Amino acid sequence: MAKLGPDISAWQGDIDIKALANHCDFFIFRSHAGISEDKKAVRNVNLAIDVGKPYGLYIYSYALNTARAEQEAANVVAFANSRRVKPSFLVIDMEDADGYKARNGMPSNQTLRDICTVECRAFERAGYYAMVYASSSWFNGKLAGLNDFDKWVAHWPTSGGKQKGMNTDPSGENANNCGIWQFTSEGYLDGYNGRLDMNYLYKDVILGGVTPTPTPEPTPAPSVEGSTLDLAVRVMKGEFGDGDARVSALGNRYDEVQDFINHIFAASVDTLADEVIAGKYGNGDTRSTVLGSRYDEVQDRVNQKLGGGSKSFKVGDKVKIKSSADRYATGQKIPNWVKGKTYTIQQMGNGKALLKEIISWVKTSDLQ
Questions:
Q1: pTM of the full predicted structure?
Q2: Is residue 228 part of a domain?
Q3: CA-to-CA distance for 55 and 53, rounded, in angstroms?
Q4: Which domain range does residue 91 map to?
Q5: Residue 290: which of 231, 240, 239, 233 has the closest Cα?
Q6: What contacts 326, CB < 8 A, 6 or more positions away?
Q7: Which of 183, 207, 231 is the last residue of a domain?
Q8: Helices 295-305 and 284-291: angle between axes, nearest 10 degrees
Q9: Cystine design at 91: which of 131, 150, 313, 334 (Cβ 3.0–4.6 Å)?
Q10: How many distinct structural domains can be found in the chain?
């Protein structure tokens, strides 16, 4: 059997909750309009608690994005948790009765659905039954496909051009389509002389017949050992995969490592060269791997900055010592018999290379 209840906000002033309680089964109170608390919310809730009536809370949402939606939801949950008897359900009122969303760039339908989802998930995590309020046209249009949460539908039947008001049959709205039906804005109850928004509630679960199961919190991301450089090298080698696989594998190190890699792709050649010289990217294979496709251009600039010309060398290259070369990088004089022969670079240093066959460091500016 449908239960009857009004939804009330500060617009009704100091309405006599105790008098109304004799003629309804439950209340719905506005707790917030955007991030502002309804001025009568605490009063109204306390009076409903005093007379032992179940109640729910709703927020008239002004969120234009999910970040603001999270803030709104947090405020509602904090208010609900601080009541001496907690509400049976929490609702996000997703409409634009005052034209705020239209004036400020109506969000896309997907964003509107995302806003509802963010707030309702926050309500569920806090242990409350979560609902979305909107008109039938919004549920069939802008919010179409939002099926994870129960609906509080606003639809006011008319007869002869006027609302049916309190003469509306509870079966007029299919109870399978919504948990609560707001059937008129011109209702009345003894104890208040003005018009009221009136509602039929169809499901006992909404009033706490079944304890809602909170959405489980996500499992904390794993931590991966190693320096940022070490992990970046492993990423470049493909050890952590791509996309979601990489996010999962790196866990709470993902942001730091991905920022490190993104910097390599976005920074100027001069910036990277200075960082190479400062030792940020290591030597040899480590430097070559982490710099990836930018290695040659960066190493060329490093060589220029260190007086090594524009030629880029790397481990494994075959080189010769120029005939004009006079001294090794260590300062000893280069004998003529080693010049003109082919050697293999075994290791790279800052502006110098270790030649495998003679185990000597030679300035890269003296190689060809």
A1: 0.58
A2: no
A3: 6
A4: 3-207
A5: 233
A6: 333, 334
A7: 207
A8: 120
A9: 131
A10: 2
